[in-house]
Prior knowledge:
The chain is α/β, with parallel strands linked by helices. The protein has six helices and seven strands; from the N terminus they run E-H-E-H-E-H-E-H-E-E-H-H-E. The termini are close together.
Amino acid sequence: MRLACVFAHPDDETFASGGTLAKLAAAKVRIDLFCATDGDAGKNSGIPVSSRIELAARRRAELAAAAQILGIASLSTPGHGDGMLRDVDPDRLVGEIVFFLRRHRPDIVLTFGPEGAPTQHRDHRAISRAATAAYFLAALPTEYADQMREVRPHQASRLYYCAWEPPTPGSELMTLSLTATCCVDVGAFLETKRAAFLAHATQRQHEARFEELGMRPTELFALAAGAPQPRFVTDDLFDGL
Ligand SMILES: [Zn+2]
């Protein structure tokens, strides 16, 4: 079985789904990650960084370390500008993800929901839209036909969006997600998830938010398209495939 993740920034994979990725990798699921930017507009948590280029290189290395901890098999990092995804030609961004899906041929595609995760970051919203389009277009031989010299069309079985519990009154972030249809018990993998977060050393300043939102014993996902689940709520993204 294969899972492809499509996210915007280094650390998105860990925040949103790190426990699930570690659990699936331990179960011999192959995981490939497309990370659209190098996070070069992000904060650096006091680590001296002289330029956006240096921050990008550092965050790319952090992502590689986190990926190794989580068991991610490969990284695709086109290096788009952090904060600028919605300014990238959509045809180009979707085409890159179509190529990524056709090359790795996942059973499941995982990305952010259209709301852009709890922060509603504009890059998260842009990558959700691009990944959703790519999920459908990757199957059509008439789309991005020039790619056929290297890859073949591919229809993944399911598209899932990241989800979370409704925020409690007074929470800092009040964004609602789609209703979760898959609740993955990641209790045994929380320390692996924390280790992956700590590998993103430039993001330490988000540690309080990570501890609050990222260290819950269950990670939630919402089925967006593809093969129906055998039950309305499952505990495994691959259930019934
Ligand atoms: Zn992000």
